[in-house]
Each structure stands twice: as C-alpha cells, then as structure tokens.
C-alpha cells in the first residue's frame, strides 16, 4: 500500500537498484557520480570489500543541512545476493555489523534484512550468514511452505520469533506461528488449522 515512486520523489526513499548497477559496472557503463566509486565496486575487485556499499548507505542516511531522517529504516533485499556476487561471508557479516552501528545505534533506526535459507542446502557460506543474523536479530520472521505440500487454501506458514533472550537471559524467546494465504493484493494470516477452508 506504499507508493514507492512518490516516496522517492519526496526524498523519503533512497533506492539502489543492484541489478542495474551490477550490469553497468560489469559492462563498463557505470558513470561515477561526484567522484564516488560504485557501491558495488567489490564485484570488479579481487577482494570482497563492501566498504563502498557501506559508504553509500552512510552517505545516503547522513542528514543534509536541517533535514534529518526520523527513525530511518534500511531494507536489504536480498543479502544472499552479495554472496552470489563473490563477497565473502565475513565481509557480509562485517557489512551488516557496520550498518547496525550506523543505523541502529547512531541514527536510532532499524534494519530489515531478507536472506534465503534451506535446511537441505549445501551452501555453507549462506547458512553461516543466516545463523549469524539469527543470533543477532531482535525479531525473526521465518517464512516457509507447508511441510505437507501444496494446498490451495493455505500457502505456507510464518514463524515470528521475538528474541527476548537478547535482553533478559533468563527468559526464552517468544514464538508465534501463523499460516497464510497470498491473495491478489494482500495476504491473509490465521492460526494453524483455522483457515476458511477448514472452518
């Protein structure tokens, strides 16, 4: 329900189109703006240094003059792509750490990160990143298909894990599980076993 084009025009959204930037960089069509290197410069280098990407984020969120971001949100969709582009897991985790310091601690904002995971996956680097992010996250939304297979009325389930243990070590994480159905323009959530088809 959010008009991203209007938000971008009002200066409320800064968007880095990774695929286009990636292709421009690989095929030599990247135009350096204000003498700054491309945020995805690591693709064409031998080391997987994500400093240019972090610098782009920090510069984008730095208030210009009297303007300031009130509770900025950094959305990273999809962090697994950085691994596919050749970044090392340690570089990706360092990048997220620096983003957390800049966005969460200094600017009092939030970071939302999408990563893909599969229990049967043999991609050890991706699983290392996923596990590390899970250990450092306040809230985890784990979306997966139904273990029983396809169903036309229930498309999958979402597990919401609130990491209380990060603050109070004596308490366990709070876990809620809902099932969902994707519709044309929205998603319906309901408790397990309580879909309209069952009732």
Automatic annotation (TrEMBL):
Signal peptide: none annotated. Pathway: tRNA modification; 5-methoxycarbonylmethyl-2-thiouridine-tRNA biosynthesis. GO terms for cellular component: elongator holoenzyme complex. Pfam families: ELP6. GO terms for biological process: tRNA wobble uridine modification. InterPro entries: ELP6 (IPR018627), P-loop_NTPase (IPR027417). Belongs to the ELP6 family. This is Elongator complex protein 6. It comes from Podargus strigoides.
């Amino acid at each position: 329900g959010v008009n991203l084009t209007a938000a971008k025009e009002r200066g409320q959204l800064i968007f880095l189109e990774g695929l286009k930037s990636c292709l421009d960089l690989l095929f030599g069509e990247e135009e350096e703006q204000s003498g700054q290197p491309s945020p995805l410069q690591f693709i064409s280098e031998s080391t997987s240094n994500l400093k240019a990407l972090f610098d782009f984020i920090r510069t984008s969120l730095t208030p210009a003059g009297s303007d300031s971001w009130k509770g900025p949100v950094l959305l990273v969709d999809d962090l697994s792509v950085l691994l596919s582009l050749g970044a090392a897991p340690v570089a990706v985790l360092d990048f997220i750490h620096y983003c957390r310091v800049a966005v969460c601690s200094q600017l009092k904002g939030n970071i939302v990160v999408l990563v893909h995971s599969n229990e049967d996956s043999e991609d050890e680097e991706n699983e290392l990143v996923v596990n590390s992010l899970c250990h450092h996250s306040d809230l985890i939304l784990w979306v997966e298909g139904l273990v029983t297979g396809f169903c036309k009325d229930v498309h999958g389930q979402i597990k919401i894990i609130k990491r209380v243990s990060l603050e109070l070590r004596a308490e366990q994480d709070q876990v809620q599980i809902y099932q969902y159905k994707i519709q044309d323009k929205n998603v319906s959530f309901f408790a397990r076993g309580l879909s309209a088809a069952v009732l």
